[in-house]
Recover the amino acids of this structure.
């Protein structure tokens, strides 16, 4: 049983003070895995022996075992969440939509990637992979550069990467590309968003937004998973063309 289950199973025998200790642990799980029993006792105006009695009621040998087990539970939750997110992204790999994108890659002489802020790191790595297969793939990070490509070049494919899909700069560029007759592909998080509404073909990844202090620390790895699948599909299509040419 995990900590919450042990609490439910033993709650009928708790004293009011033990309820307070349990409430503190549930509210401060991470801190509880490292705090010393004397420190906790002082903080809750009780004695270490009271905490030890509670631990035994919950089925632990002592406070040390409670902390160790609680730490394992927290690690397991993180691992399970990571696995869930990865599996969700594998489910989002859509062969039919990949094929639609590949047809655009093959049809147009240029494929222009665009991303902003933290998504640039992923976009850069992905573009470099595609560039090894053809110099038609380019990454642009500045609005004025992409506007120049949109307004002064022959019909091309423009690929916008944005987790939120709600960047006003990206919206403006995507709409401009459509006005000039270019094809637009989007890769966003699995949400209803403006960029997906603008694009001709939509690819999706799945991640959950995380904030640490004032910083957005949302995991961008799912973007890479979807792009890697697209890259492998494109590489396979090139290999098939070589095989046909040799026959």
């Amino acid at each position: 049983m995990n900590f919450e289950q042990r609490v439910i199973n033993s709650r009928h025998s708790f004293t009011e003070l033990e309820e307070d200790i349990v409430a503190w642990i549930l509210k401060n799980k991470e801190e509880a895995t490292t705090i010393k029993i004397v420190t906790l006792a002082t903080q809750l105006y009780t004695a270490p022996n009271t905490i030890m009695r509670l631990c035994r009621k919950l089925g632990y040998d002592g406070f040390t075992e409670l902390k160790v087990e609680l730490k394992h539970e927290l690690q397991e939750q993180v691992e399970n969440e990571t696995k869930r997110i990865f599996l969700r992204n594998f489910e989002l790999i859509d062969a039919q939509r990949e094929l639609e994108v590949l047809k655009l890659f093959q049809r147009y002489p240029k494929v222009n990637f665009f991303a902003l802020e933290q998504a640039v790191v992923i976009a850069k790595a992905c573009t470099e992979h595609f560039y090894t297969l053809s110099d038609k793939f380019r990454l642009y990070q500045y609005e004025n550069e992409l506007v120049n490509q949109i307004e002064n070049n022959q019909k091309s494919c423009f690929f916008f990467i944005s987790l939120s899909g709600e960047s006003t700069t990206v919206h403006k560029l995507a709409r401009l590309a459509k006005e000039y007759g270019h094809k637009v592909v989007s890769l966003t998080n699995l949400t209803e968003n403006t960029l997906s509404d603008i694009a001709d073909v939509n690819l999706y990844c799945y991640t959950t937004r995380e904030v640490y202090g004032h910083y957005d620390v949302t995991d961008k790895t799912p973007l890479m998973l979807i792009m890697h699948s697209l890259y492998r599909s494109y590489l396979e299509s090139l290999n098939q063309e070589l095989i046909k040419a040799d026959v």
In short: Strands lie at 111-115, 137-140, 157-161, 183-189, 201-205, 211-212, 215-216.
